[in-house]
Structure formats: structure tokens, C-alpha cells
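Structure in, sequence out. Go:
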């Protein structure tokens, strides 16, 4: 069973320290959230799982971590200055502002129902900021609206420093910013978010095949993170809705608590981006207007040694939202169970590699020196195995600790009791089955490692 409502998820996230409204004590800012102690671990685990599958487990990719502040020239040539817009409508009566495509009710203001609306006007979604000490508008940068442009501008640097050739990919994770007009649905649509993007460069002509490959690969990956196959949908983006750079895009939708929407997009961006950042475009078949005016001094192309000519590779881009991934996985993992006729429990049945806390070590009696010291030693030894965060819970209330760790998705709790001092073993409780077994301290590291493999 996944979560019943978004409210239940929001409540769990706040109660257990996954997510807080940003700037909360001053009333908050819409569309911004902060990841709390559990949230930051969970999000990092998700990103790590992506990095592992996109970089470490492949032999044809490299990583990058580029700057967030982006030159307007880059975003001019990428097409974002001109086309990264939403049509906006103002309500003259209540002064509210709406996205034209969200006026669901026959062109009436969703707030006051007035029909006195302006014509739609394009609104650029990029955040601008001044560079340098004088804010006179002459020197500014954008906060990147997607992470991938710096992958394209670093294409030659990476080729030259790694001697890669196509097919190969460059992976990057990090913040992106969009001044969304109506942020909504918790962390689904926010103004500051993270993306995990791979730009996979291929020879033109092989792009359709690679596109199919990445669509399937990405769906498989989400399933491996714990999303049920039936909750993921492959949606072909209609031709008239394709982004300016795309030949074909397939969105991977997930059935979120508020409805089915995009979790990840897999686009065939053709040679648009590398082409638009390339000088000497006459050498290539460049079609877009914006690409014809490039002032870049670099040729972002590959030499075909057999045919003895240069060409601009095509690029396949699987682009996933970290925050949407967090929301989807929390929703998938959420369970409510009756323990007996009077008691129920909430648990997050997360895959262990994603759990914010891998194990909790709980001395049966609070502040009992012998039990606490032994617990600390066990905690420290498990922590050293490097599989993620292990915590010591010294509150003495086993029931409360079990409930808390069920709700944050900790796969196992280890209780150190007075028997432990005699038989040198601990009670291990499994989150999902609630089954308990005794494991000797000597075998604990092996047991723990096997658990996570
Ligand atoms: P949407 O149609 O929902 O606005 P998009 O098609 O504009 O999304 P892309 O430009 O393809 O999104 O970005 C890639 C991924 O980045 C999306 O699949 C999504 O997971 C994430 N993403 C985009 N915009 C936001 C946002 N405002 N808040 C959170 N995640 C986002």
C-alpha cells in the first residue's frame, strides 16, 4: 500500500525530519523546501545510487560538477533566453497571476472567479543575479534552469582530458532553478530543485536505438529503487509539445499522490546543443536560427577517422528530478499496518540502500554505563563499514525507538540488553517483518554486510 494522501506524506516528512518548508520561522517561501536530518541522508543515498549506476558501473561515462551561475551567452545559444517561458495571465480584479494553461475553468481567475484577465504574456522562468559589486544590469548571470548546459560547454575539456570518443556520456547531479509561477504539490513542483542528468553522445544514425536503450534502462533503474512497475508509465511527448531542441522525448510518469505526472524525461536532443555552442557551423548542417549566431570559439565536434570528416554527435538525455524521486519513493514505501486490534504502525519500507539510517543500536536501559559503552562500540564498528549512517539511541524506550525507526525506514534495530553482557549477542529486529533474532556480536559485521547486499 502506498500513502493514501499527500497530507499523510507531508505530515510524516515534517514529524520525522525529512522535509521542512524553507524559511519556516518567517512564514516560509512558496516553492522552497529544506531537507532535514533524515531527508538529507535519503536524498544523498538516492543520488549515490544514481551515480553508481550511471558512472561507477559503466565503462562509457564520466562525471562532472559544474558551476550553477551560468553565462547569459550560454543560455542564449541554448535557446533558453528566448524560449524558456510560460504564458502568464494577470487577473485585473484580485491582482493574482496564473499560468495560462492552468485556467481550468473557462478563462476565469481561479482565485476570485473574475473574467477580467489580461492576454497571456510570455514569462521567462530563469532567475537572474548580478555578478560583481555593481548591480547596474551590465553584468549578470542566470541560475542554471537545467544542469546539462555546462556538460555541453565542457564537452571538449572532457574529451581532451579523458580521450573518450562516442558513444560516451557525461553525468552530473546538482541544483537547478526555475521561477515556477505556481509551485505546488509539496516537492513535486518547486523553484529550487536537483536534477540527475546524463548526456550520452552518439553517432548520428544510431540515436534512435540509443534512445530506446536509455528509456528502458531508466525505467529498470526506478524499479530497482523500489517503484512498482505498474506505477510507472512511458508517455510519448506529442510532436507539438516537444521542447525546442528535441527530436523525440519519452517521459517516464509516476502515479504521485496528486495524480500521474512526469518523474523523468528521456530526450533525443540531436546535435542542437553542441551545434549551437560551436563556431564554424558552416562546416555542419546547422538548421536552427539561434545556432547560426554562435560566438563560441570552440568546435564541439568529433573527428570520424574512417570517413576523415568532423561531425557533431547527437545526444540522448535521461533527465531525472531528485526531489520528484524522493517524493515517489516515499510514497511507494509508505505503509500503515495493524499490529493488533488496538495498535497500528506506520512504516517506510524503503530498500536498505536508500534508508536514511541503516541501523539503530539501542541499549535497553538508558545511561547504564555497561550497556551504553557496549552499544557505542557496536555502533562505531558498524559505522566503520561505510554503508551509511548508524545511530545510537540512548532514550531507554524501546517501543518508541522501534516506532520512530519504522517511520524513517531503518531496516534493522539492534538491542543491547543484560543478556548481551552474558552471551555476547544482540537482538536484531527486522523493520518489515518485526521478527527478532539473536546474533552474536562477533558475527554482526558479516550479518550486517549481507543484509545490505
Ligand atoms: P514539467 O513538465 O513537469 O514542468 P519539464 O518537462 O519542464 O517538467 P524537464 O525540463 O524535462 O522538466 O526537467 C527534467 C526533470 O527535472 C523533470 O522530469 C523533473 O523530474 C525535474 N523538474 C523539472 N522542473 C521541476 C520543478 N519545478 N520542481 C521539481 N522538479 C522539477
Amino acid at each position: 500500500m502506498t500513502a493514501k494522501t499527500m497530507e499523510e506524506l507531508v505530515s510524516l516528512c515534517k514529524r520525522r525530519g525529512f522535509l521542512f518548508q524553507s524559511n519556516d520561522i518567517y512564514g516560509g517561501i512558496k516553492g522552497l523546501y529544506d531537507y532535514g536530518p533524515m531527508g538529507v541522508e535519503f536524498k544523498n543515498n538516492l543520488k549515490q545510487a544514481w551515480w553508481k549506476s550511471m558512472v561507477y558501473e559503466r565503462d562509457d561515462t564520466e562525471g562532472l560538477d559544474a558551476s550553477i551561475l551560468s553565462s547569459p551567452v550560454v543560455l542564449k545559444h541554448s535557446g533558453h533566453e528566448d524560449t524558456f517561458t510560460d504564458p502568464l495571465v494577470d487577473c485585473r480584479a484580485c491582482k493574482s497571476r496564473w499560468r495560462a494553461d492552468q485556467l481550468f475553468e473557462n478563462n476565469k481567475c481561479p482565485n476570485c472567479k473574475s473574467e477580467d484577465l489580461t492576454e497571456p504574456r510570455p514569462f521567462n522562468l530563469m532567475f537572474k543575479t548580478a555578478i560583481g559589486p555593481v548591480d547596474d544590469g551590465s553584468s549578470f548571470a542566470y541560475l542554471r534552469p537545467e544542469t546539462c548546459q555546462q556538460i555541453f560547454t565542457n564537452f571538449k575539456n572532457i574529451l581532451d582530458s579523458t580521450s573518450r570518443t562516442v558513444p560516451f556520456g557525461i553525468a552530473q547531479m546538482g541544483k537547478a532553478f526555475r521561477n515556477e509561477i505556481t509551485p505546488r504539490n509539496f516537492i513535486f513542483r518547486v523553484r529550487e530543485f536537483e536534477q540527475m542528468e546524463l548526456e550520452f553522445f552518439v553517432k548520428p544514425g544510431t540515436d534512435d536505438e540509443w534512445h530506446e536503450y536509455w528509456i528502458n534502462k531508466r525505467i529498470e533503474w526506478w524499479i530497482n529503487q523500489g517503484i512498482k512497475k505498474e506505477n510507472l508509465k512511458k508517455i510519448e511527448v506529442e510532436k507539438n509539445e516537444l521542447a525546442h531542441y528535441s527530436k523525440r522525448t519519452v517521459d517516464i510518469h509516476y502515479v504521485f499522490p496528486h495524480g500521474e505526472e512526469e518523474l523523468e524525461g528521456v530526450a533525443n536532443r540531436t546535435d542542437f546543443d553542441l551545434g549551437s555552442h560551436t563556431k564554424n557551423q558552416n562546416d555542419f548542417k546547422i538548421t536552427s536560427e539561434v545556432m547560426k549566431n554562435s560566438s563560441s570559439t570552440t568546435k564541439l565536434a568529433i573527428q570520424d577517422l574512417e570517413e576523415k570528416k568532423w561531425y557533431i554527435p547527437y545526444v540522448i538525455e535521461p533527465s531525472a528530478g531528485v526531489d520528484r524521486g524522493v517524493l515517489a519513493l516515499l510514497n511507494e514505501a509508505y505503509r500503515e499496518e495493524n499490529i493488533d486490534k488496538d495498535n497500528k504502525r506506520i512504516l517506510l519500507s524503503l530498500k536498505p540502500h536508500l534508508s536514511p539510517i541503516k541501523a539503530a543500536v539501542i541499549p535497553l536501559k538508558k545511561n547504564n554505563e555497561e550497556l551504553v559503552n557496549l552499544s557505542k562500540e557496536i555502533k562505531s564498528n558498524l559505522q566503520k563499514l561505510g554503508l551509511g549512517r548508524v545511530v545510537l539511541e540512548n532514550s531507554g524506550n524501546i517501543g518508541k525507538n522501534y516506532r520512530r525507526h519504522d517511520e524513517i525506514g531503518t531496516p534493522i534495530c539492534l538491542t543491547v540488553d543484560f543478556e548481551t553482557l552474558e552471551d555476547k549477542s544482540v537482538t536484531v529486529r527486522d523493520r518489515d517483518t518485526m521478527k527478532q533474532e539473536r546474533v552474536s556480536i562477533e558475527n554482526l559485521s558479516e550479518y550486517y554486510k549481507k543484509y545490505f547486499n
